[in-house]
Specification:
The protein is mainly alpha-helical. It has one domain. The radius of gyration is 15 Å and the shape is elongated.
């Protein structure tokens, strides 16, 4: 299994844990949309590229639900969101590092 496939599996596992722990229907729908966005493409590299944007949209959806007092995350759910955010940052950082190195090479 490649690193990208491992990251996709980790994200999917975390999303499943989050989904199963939620009681609110709208929150569950937001997690399902995130899962669908990530897993819609066929190629693992395309799925991998979808992760940062999909997790960012999920965080925004949860913020809206929290502000409207429709759903509050429990401590364990917040920990899952933290892990998802951390994974997303690692994915984004690797892409950003490659851009920086490419700039150095071609300057």
């Amino acid at each position: 299994m490649t690193k990208k496939e491992e990251a996709i599996k980790q994200v999917n596992d975390l999303l499943q844990q989050l989904y199963e722990s939620l009681d609110n229907t709208k929150a569950k729908e937001a997690v399902q949309l995130t899962y669908n966005q990530i897993n819609r493409p066929y190629k693992p590299s395309q799925k991998y590229k979808e992760i940062p944007e999909a997790i960012d949209l999920l965080k925004k959806d949860f913020s809206k639900l929290s502000l409207s007092k429709e759903n509050r995350l429990t401590r364990s759910q917040e920990e899952i969101m933290y892990k998802l955010t951390k994974l997303t940052r690692q994915i984004f950082q690797k892409g950003f590092d490659r851009i920086m190195y490419a700039n150095i090479w071609f300057s």
